[in-house]
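Bug: token stream looks shifted between consecutive jobs. Job 1:
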Amino acid sequence: MQPLDLVKAHLRAEDEGDVAAVLATFTEDCVYRIPAYDVDLRGKEQIGAFYRSMFASFPDFVNETETYHVSDQAIFVEIVTRRTHDGVWRDLPPTGRSFRTTSLAQFPVAADGLLGGEIVHVNPVDALYKIGALPSPDLFQTVRRFRPLARRVALVTGASRGIGAAVAEALADAGADVVLAGRDRAALTEVAGRVRAAGTHVEMLTGDVTDVGACRRLVAETVARLGRLDVLVNAAGGTRRGPALEVTEEDWDAVQDMNLKSAFFTSQAAARVMEEGGSIVNVASLNGVVGNAWAAGYAASKGGIVQLTKSLALEWADRGIRVNAIGPGMVDTPMTEPLQQDPERMARLLSHIPMARFGRPDEMGGAAVFLASDASAYMTGQVVYVDGGYLCV
């Protein structure tokens, strides 16, 4: 049997709870290491005992998706698993918790073609917290690079589409439990389905953040449901395009309320409950520093976001709350569809972008995770522009 087929047989045997079939994929002197569980096993007998204990504790144990990366020396697998903790696991009483987790496993290929030498399996640490199996601090630091937001709770406004939805997915992939907030319940439900694939907890809240009461309610309900708030992403926003001479008071107020007022009052509510500190990530725009003809209200609101970010960073630094922003350039979202349907305007825009294309919403997620996590622990009051090089020109 080829090594890749052995790995697939190994994973099928896990799904079926067949210890003998799992062990048949290993060499006799195999070393099986699971850093997140602090387990280091040598030989089939010890590995078998480990699997029997695991299957008894997690009767609902199914690998839902498997992604393989193959080389001559090893097979690397990313596995999304559904689990239910119904039995005693390493002296931990059953919790009955059902959850998904993403596991990373490396299977070196031995000289005889079997999976041998050393099997290294890393089970992300957030799953361990869900069943109360806290690893040592050293192990946590080792594993958290895969899930830097494990045990964090994040609220994302404007999460029903575009950049907000993409950032919510990125935060969940990084280990955060995520609360999705928006006005469109059906759209939120669709996004929640994608976010849940990361294996973390997801909640949905509907509300219009142009209403201050809704801003406060979203924060309060997040804390009521998940017990805390560590990260806020203010991604709600929009625009109304038109010549400045034709902008009405209602047009102006609508854009400022969507983009600037909502960010301030949601941040205010969040700061009041971030008792142990936290991270607020605003969504600014390159139009915060570059003018935008036919969208004066939008540019003004995003310039306001830049200054709001700096001002709140100064005021809340001593509370342990960092306030930063991402500054997207031209991104392929519903808001930019009218621009993309105008060939002449698209040609002018692309001529200003060194990378010669619009960005994707998911390309904003990395910057948001960075600003939300401890990787940016000494950053506050900054705007990270993700613009394909637009501001270099």
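Job 2, same session, no restart:
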Amino acid sequence: MALKVETYELFTTDKPGSGKTVQAKPAKGKTATGARKRVEVKAAPKVEESYAADGSCFHPGLTKPRTGRYYVGAKGAVKTFADFDEALTYLRKMKVAYWTRPNASGNWGVVVAERWDELRY
């Protein structure tokens, strides 16, 4: 609300002689009176991720900067994926999960999963 006027009221027009009143829709998430609509918020789905011994996990931010792809698999048997869900599905099917991620120095290397646990956002 600005200057005690609802946003949708700024776009309400009543042209003299037109005989019509045109009113814009209220802002998203609000009713015509400005009251907030009750919206049902669903909890984020629980996602189990693989964690390495150093505490790092396989997550959506692990695309290599030059290629924009995920690298999954042991050295010599690495597969690349453009889509995180496809990479995660492949990782889950592996007998032992391996993926590539940068270390503290920014160098990319292969790590092995030590455990699977819920991804914390």
